[in-house]
Amino acid sequence: MMANIWWSLPLTLIVFFAARKLAARYKFPLLNPLLVAMVVIIPFLMLTGISYDSYFKGSEVLNDLLQPAVVALAYPLYEQLHQIRARWKSIITICFIGSVVAMVTGTSVALLMGASPEIAASILPKSVTTPIAMAVG
C-alpha cells in the first residue's frame, strides 16, 4: 500500500489549505480548517488501512514547528502587557472557567462513551495545548 511516508505532509497541507478556502468562502464555524482536516484525514487513514504512526512520521515536521510557534507568541503578548495588567481579573476568571469546562467536557464524553472511571479521571489533566502536551509528554 502506501508504505512510504512522503505523501503525509503534502496531504496534510493540501487538505488544510483547501479547508481554509472553504472557511473563507462560506464563513461557517464548523468549517474550521483544523476540524475539516481531521474529518478528511482520519477517515482517509481508516479507509486505506494506514496507521497513524506512519502518517505522523511523514508530517512530524509540522508537529515540531508547534513548539517554537508557542514561544513566538510571547513577544506579542509582552507588547500587550499593559492590557493584560488592566484586565487580569477577567483573564484569570475566563481561564479558570475554560479549564473547568474543558475538564468536565472531556471527562463526561469519556464516561458517555463507556470509559472506566479511572480512564475518565486520567483525561482531566489532558486539557492543554498540543505544543505544551508534546513538551511534557
TrEMBL record:
Transmembrane keyword on record: yes
Its membrane topology: Multi-pass membrane protein
Source species, domain of life: Bacteria
Presence of keyword Transmembrane: yes
Alphabetical keyword list: Membrane, Transmembrane, Transmembrane helix
TM spans (from-to): 33-52, 91-115
A cellular component term, taken from the record's GO annotations: membrane
Database matches in Pfam families: LrgB
UniProt-annotated location(s): Membrane
NCBIfam families hit by this protein: PRK10711.1 (NF007983)
PANTHER family hit by this protein: PLASTIDAL GLYCOLATE_GLYCERATE TRANSLOCATOR 1, CHLOROPLASTIC, PUTATIVE SEROTONIN TRANSPORTER
Name of the molecule in the record: CidB/LrgB family autolysis modulator
Source species of the chain: Escherichia coli
